[in-house]
Amino acid sequence: MIQIEKLRKVYRARHRAVTAVDGVDLAVREGEIFGVLGRSGAGKSTLLRCVNLLERPDSGRVVVGGRDLLALSGAELRAARRGIGMIHQHFGLLSGRTVAGNVAFPLEVMRMPRAERAARVAELLELVGLTEHAGAYPAQISGGQKQRVGIARALAGRPEVLLSDEATSALDPETTASILELLRDLSRRLGLTVLLITHEMEVVKRICDSAAIMRAGRVVESGPVRDLLLRPGSELAGGLFPLPAPDVREGATVVDVTFEGDSADRPFVSALARTYSIDVNILGGAVEQVGDGRIGRLRIELPGDPEVNAAQLAHLRDSGLTVEVHGAGARPGEGVRP
Ligand SMILES: Nc1ncnc2c1ncn2[C@@H]1O[C@H](COP(=O)(O)OP(=O)(O)O)[C@@H](O)[C@H]1O
Ligand SMILES: [Mg+2]
């Protein structure tokens, strides 16, 4: 649905140039929620603004719904933009207009006839659960309700794509959860493709089908969230399971095991201890709800060097677990599943 190829954007000031987006490739599938995760300054907003050409890239390609945006004429681009809605961290509502008036605004710009417009506004307010607040002004509603107005307004022109720039960053955790749920629900019901950027792991964890991690203008990893979390060495998993660098004792092997489901579903620790008659220490770990499933990571310690534990490590890998070995004898790439 969205293809970004070799995208580059440099901001030039008089004495310096900032490469905000430095050769990014991304593919967002139709109907999925794709999250771009990164710290402040990573280039996320610039990337997003290149997708609707609010920002003109220096080079690269942006293809949305089969249309190569950089090749379009002015009128064609305006039409293509109508298929791309956008929501923002600070909502961007018109304070002098009511909730209904804000949602009607893009429809007025499109010159939709009055009666049709009123019906469409009512439908949109229903969709985001704001029917009862149609006559309120932005100052009279909560942050979460303001973002619902923002979402209704973004969907007014029936876009196929919704871009979201930190849409929940100004909201408290509970309100964040309800807005994320709304986005997920809308994406499923309307077949809407959502490209969102965030600095919060929580957002990716809750609603994203796929994700990319961005740093210094580049994408460092991307793919379906589940695949990334189960990939050895994944930065996304490192963010979800922030275990410190282990302190590996002489003659011991520390292993991070990542698994799907609950650890109770996969009694691999007791199986390992029983099969090899060894003591297995549990050093830490967590199980996290990710989308509709659960993914866990457990850090365990086995007696003996990694070489001594070759059979045990193979046993874990053969059980379909993702295994990352820390230890004096651990070689690079040892964690990689065959
Ligand atoms: N309009 C601009 N002019 C100059 N530099 C900018 C502009 N917008 C962003 N930048 C710079 O580009 C880099 C990426 O910014 P941005 O895309 O806003 O990152 P993020 O959204 O991940 O915080 C930063 O170094 C930022 O200072
Ligand atoms: Mg930003």
CATH class of the largest domain: Alpha Beta
Assembly type: single chain
Rg for CA atoms? 24 Å
CATH architecture type of the largest domain: 3-Layer(aba) Sandwich
Number of strands: 14
CATH topology of the largest domain, which one? Rossmann fold
Structural class: alpha/beta
- What is the averaged pLDDT score? 92
Helical fraction: 25-40%
- The separation of the N and C termini measures 32 Å
Alpha plus pi helix count: 11
- Which molecules other than protein and nucleic acid are bound? adenosine-5'-diphosphate, magnesium ion
Tell me what portion of residues adopts beta-strand conformation: 25-35%
Which runs of at least 5 residues are low in confidence (pLDDT < 50)?
331-338
Can you describe what's shown?
By secondary structure, the protein is of the alpha/beta class. It has 2 domains: 2-229, P-loop containing nucleotide triphosphate hydrolases (Rossmann fold, 3-Layer(aba) Sandwich); 237-326, 2-Layer Sandwich (Alpha-Beta Plaits), CATH 3.30.70.260. It has helices spanning 44-51, 74-82, 99-109, 114-127, 143-155, 173-190, 201-207, 225-229, 235-240, 268-276, 310-318; strands spanning 2-12, 17-28, 33-37, 59-64, 67-68, 84-88, 161-165, 193-198, 210-215, 218-224, 252-260, 281-290, 293-303, 322-326. The strands form 3 sheets. The protein has a 6-stranded mixed β-sheet, with helices on both faces. It has a 4-stranded antiparallel β-sheet with strand order 2-1-4-5, covered by helices on one side. Strands 12-13-11-14 form a 4-stranded antiparallel β-sheet. A hairpin with a 2-residue loop joins strand 12 and strand 13. Helix 4 (114-127) crosses helix 5 (143-155). Mean pLDDT is 92; it is low at 331-338. It binds adenosine-5'-diphosphate (ADP) and magnesium ion (MG). Magnesium ion binds at residues 44-45.
